């Protein structure tokens, strides 16, 4: 991907270095002449200037980049497809349902007519992430399309509703296959080609529930915690190849995630929960995903104040967090254990 920010990393560094030099000479003057206040004020000024410069830097462009999006047939994946397509990416859209993917391709192609930006007709690859054999064949198919992948966005996922006592072990495994082993298998199949080119970017859509576990979400929260851990390890292991890894942890988003969720007996939950219905607009989240890709962010939480406080509370005051979760579990107790 090309860097085309308003300010390049080099410009930012030069501006910060000259500011630091000013501080140093001001520090020497203060030590010689006394009075620390101007030194503190100058330091604060530099800090603010640095933050402003980082904001102004747009980061890498996705124009012409080969971007693979899983779960592109609906919800957040579909909105990411829209946003990355409009930004000029060469898209490879993945999902299980060929007809729904084709519909997205059709919509994006129609939207291309209204944009000044150079856009590319999206491709699609159909496969089930929960089927390990199909994932490696799909990765070969993906690589054949353009010869390489610039950005892999592991977005596809399924949620779960149920209490552990009534949940069949096969459901725990199935959620893990889709949410954890699927993205891991796809990432590992596409990674060697990225390492060979010393170029690429791996992104995963986790969840706030990859950082905190809430009651009656065991399979989902466990799969997202595993996701967070795996991609944190990956980030450290592939950084020296120039491959960034971005974990994005959203709070509730207005999609069909809860409707498609699986329950303890394997049936579909089929309810649009109020938390989902009143969640963030998926377009807003998709723009945040594009920003995170451009800026090569490492870990991004996209949630309101309450979930964000809960994430910190889990680490800083776990006893209180566990108490709050127990109380929540008692209040929400599911019918079968009443
Ligand atoms: N909505 C929310 O509140 C939040 C969502 N997230 C995460 O965002 C991601 C996207 O979910 P969202 O858009 O909300 O939900 P949707 O249910 O709208 O989308 C899920 C997507 O995943 C695909 N998918 C599901 N199972 C498989 C599978 N076995 N193989 C391949 N693709 C599959 C579906 O495609 P198809 O069925 O066509 O194959 C669908 O496109 C998920 O990882 C979710 O955990 C994170 C935080 C909050
Ligand atoms: C001293 C002050 C304490 C304040 C802390 C209060 C703690 C409140 C707990 C808040 C829990 C927030 C849970 C957020 C969950 C979430 O956003 O999940 C995102 C999803 O992935 C949604 O999936 P789901 O299938 O569960 O709809």
Automatic annotation (TrEMBL):
Organism: Menidia menidia
Designated name of the protein: Dehydrogenase/reductase SDR family member 7B
Family: Belongs to the short-chain dehydrogenases/reductases (SDR) family.
A Pfam family hit: adh_short
Keywords in alphabetical order: Membrane, NAD, NADP, Oxidoreductase, Transmembrane, Transmembrane helix
Any one cellular-component term (Gene Ontology): cytoplasm
Gene Ontology molecular function, alphabetical: oxidoreductase activity, acting on the CH-OH group of donors, NAD or NADP as acceptor
Domain Ketoreductase: 65-256
SUPFAM superfamilies, A to Z: NAD(P)-binding Rossmann-fold domains
Transmembrane segments: 35-53
Tagged with keyword Ubl conjugation: no
Claim: NAD is one of the keywords in the record: yes
Function text: Putative oxidoreductase.
InterPro entries from the UniProt entry: KR_dom, NAD(P)-bd_dom_sf, Sc_DH/Rdtase_CS, SDR_fam
GO biological process: lipid metabolic process
